Amino acid sequence: MTTPSVPVLQTQKIISLIQTDGHLCRTLKGFEPRQQQQSMMTNIIDAYNQNHITLIEAGTGTGKSLAYLIPALLWAANTSERTVISTNTITLQEQLIHKDIPHLLQALNLQLKVSLVKGMNNYLCLRKLEDAHAELTFFPSDDHKEIEKIEAWRKTATEGSRSEMPFVPSSAVWDRVGAESEACSHHECPHYQECYFYKARRQAQEAHLLVVNHHLLFSDIMRRADQDNYGETAILPVYKRIILDEAHHIEDIATEYFASRLSRLELMRVLARLTADKHSAAQGKLPLLKEKIHSVFRKGAPRDITQILSLLTIDLPALRHVLLDRIHQAFDEFAKFIDCIKQPFNTSLQEEPSSPTEQKLRILEEYFSHHHWKEEILPQAQKLIESLKHYQQVLNSLEADLKVIDHDRLHEQTKSIRLDIQALASRLDPAIQVLNNFFSQRKDPSKVRWIESQPLKTLLNVQLIDADLDVSKALAAFLFSKFSTIILCSATLTTNQQFGFIRQRLGLEPKLLPHRSITEHIYGSPFDYRKQAILAVPTDMPPPNHPDFNEIAFENVWKAIQASRGHSFVLFTSYSMLQNCYQALAKRFEEHHYPLFKQGDDNRQGLLNQFKKTKRAVLFGTDSFWEGVDVVGDALRCVILVKLPFKVPSEPIIQARTEAITERGGDPFFEFAVPHAIVKFKQGFGRLIRHKWDRGCIVCLDTRLVMKGYGKLFLNSLPPCEKVFMNGDRLWPKIEEFYRQTYHFVKQNPFSS
First vs last Cα of the chain: how many Å apart? Predict the structure, then answer.
């Protein structure tokens, strides 16, 4: 990457905007100068001017969003060059789009266009909505109320996206009306000019700043890699500068994105959209096509049409029934194989799964010679592949037969529904490919395969996954070597104050990027953790592998909540432990008037809203509550981390990555398990102090933090705060005293009620 000879952005001039008495101090309400923010902005300006890749860990309260938005906006104003800002959460995207960026544009007096870009399936398809209405006239359905609500909503909708709806449509209904690339006729669509998706894409083409999520960014990057296209529009318009916020998620998102997946539920949904048996009658795209053909040829159909109707009436329904049987037979055998392999082993030695009903089995080479694999799995998989191919071939021949018929009214009446049928037929291609690859005995050391099963309300959903063990080379080749400026930032990128782990996992190393300049910077939080927070560990807790750990941990959860008088998060590493703790303490909470909310009772935002407005509330959460949750003020004054958040070692991809490190002579515990757990621990720790007026305790019930040598790596990764490690009989009075001594934070908080 060549570096501009004259810097486009003048560092000191820009930094002066956010210094004491700077322009933003005078014009941006509530803005406070922070040295960490100024230093971070300097790094980002350098990354733009000098075409760097820059990693920045910025503690809570640094103001990292403004630190990267101001250079991105000024770069666009000076060069008309676009920046893509990618985040992991909708919450941050909405904050950027609705708050931070509009305020900055006004304060800086800039006339720039900004667009929040969403994937195609987030938008309503007007053609498919029209077809859904037409389908209801032929086949009355339970979905009619939802479709009518969507029709009423779209008359006042502005962007036409699912998130704009005042209600949440069911996934089945959204499948019927949501936009999708395979079923889009682009300029030929009669609704093209008013299409919500293409309106959004036209806005994106004009925008100087694009805000996206990590999944959409990877979709665009892989489309560009496949086409070797970095100079024209792909999924997103052309861009050269990328800011990856919440960048600690990149490896997991890339792994998920590059993985191949196939599930029983996914196949059944595709078939149900083609034909579904409801109320003793066939419904769906194929029966609708038959009705439309009948409506065109009311006075008798010619022979070629009769043959097509026979295909729709006899052949395709028969093939569908065979295919459905083979889907169930095959996926039932996959589930049985999990039980067959796991039953002989002592599962009590394994870590608890994230869901108590979820089962996972990694496919090892030795299983290929297992009698169940050879005699049941492979024959059923092959039968399923053959049925999928046959069904798809007949769908394709149906379209071919219709195409050659010279009848304008027929084509006019059926072209929309045929487009949907072709789109659904094309979805069977990747399913066939996944099955072929998954059951191949060819060993690929760079891949890991596994089977998952999870009970749903009406069936056991079984899923096949084939994923990359290492995404670092792909990220280096397709992302980090292709764009001029890339900034990765988060509050949790380092472990033990070093970037080595994240750099190695993402491929940000000289051997993979010999011609790129990579800089790294750490900025601590501006909050005074020494005064605002304490980290407490009751040292008389048994280790997590002790048979009495859960019972004693639950008692200490109760004592911590009594000490803080509620207003607490309790964060677990497994859902089963959460449920067990709930059962152990729910009655006590009720008797002592601590309202208890737990994950699973409502969606995350609903639980948070209830928690924030309820006095003495306690919230039990697992994985998704360890990060991205922002509760400011005394509504949250205690965070209890029940165990150190090590990844489940029996997870197939964790197991395989651990083995790969061992094979090359490394130490998987210190190279992989500990750094991952530190990042997650920092996220959980970070839930507590979100503002300079916040105060509270982080209680860790896992004594490995103080008893094991690697505990120092966790402690060295945290902001500097008072640490209290002592027996519970002394600890809980100490915590109560801390709350009394820090009550002045609550009294001084101008935002407290």
Answer: 53
How high is the pLDDT of residue 1?
Answer: 65
Asked whether residue 164 carries a pLDDT value surpassing 90, the answer given is no
User: Which uninterrupted H or E stretch holds 522?
Assistant: strand 518-523
pTM of the full structure: 0.91
| 171-to-174, 419, 745 alpha-carbon distances in Å | 5, 21, 46
> Rounded to the nearest 10 degrees, what angle do helices 378-403 and 408-426 cross at?
160
The Cα–Cα gap between 421 and 416 comes to 9
Q: Count helices and strands (H / E) in the chain.
A: 33, 20
pLDDT of residue 401: 93
In 72-177 the beta strands, taken as DSSP E runs, fall at 83-87, 114-116
Q: Mean pLDDT over residues 355-383, rounded?
A: 88
Q: Given a cut of 50, is residue 354 above it in pLDDT?
A: no
**DSSP 8-state assignment for residue 161:** B
| Beta strands at 241-245 and 359-362: parallel, antiparallel or unpaired | unpaired
| CA-derived radius of gyration, the chain | 29
**Tokens 């529009």 — which residue?**
233
Distance of CA 503 to the CA centre of its chain: 21
Which residue in 94, 82, 352, 26 sits closest to 205, CA to CA?
82
- Rounded CA separation 54/485 (Å): 8
pLDDT tens digits for 667-714?
A: 999 999 999 999 999 999 999 999 888 999 999 999 999 999 999 999
Residue 540 tokens, joined: 């008389």
CA separation for the pair 599, 580 (Å, rounded): 13
Mean pLDDT value of segment 269-296: 86
Tokens 């956010």 -> residue: 18
**β-sheet bridge partners, residue 696:** 533
Q: pLDDT digits over 711-738, tens only?
A: 999 999 999 999 999 999 999 999 999 9
Residues 470 and 505: their CA atoms lie apart, in Å, by 8
Find out whether 695 and 728 touch, Cβ atoms under 8 Å.
no
Task: Give CB contacts under 8 A, 24+ apart, made by 249-255.
Answer: 249/88, 249/214, 250/214, 250/475, 250/488, 250/506, 251/471, 251/505, 251/506, 253/88, 253/214, 253/215, 253/218, 254/218, 254/471, 254/474, 254/475, 255/467, 255/468, 255/471, 255/653
Instruction: State the amino acid at position 224 in one-letter form.
Output: R
340 sits in which H/E element: helix 316-342
Joined tokens for residue 80? 């008309």
Specify whether the CB–CB gap between 640 and 646 falls below 8 A: no
**How distant, in Å, are the alpha carbons of 50, 263, 520 from that of 379?**
58, 18, 53
Tens-digit pLDDT profile for residues 145-157: 888 899 999 989 9
CA distances from 425 to 189, 293, 440 (A): 20, 20, 24
Six-digit token pair at 90?
Answer: 């909708």
User: Which residues does residue 242 pair with via DSSP β-bridges, in sequence order?
Assistant: 84, 486
Instruction: Report helix, strand or coil for 589.
Output: helix
Q: How far apart are CA 470 and CA 372, in angstroms?
A: 30
Whether 315 contacts 372, CB under 8 Å: no
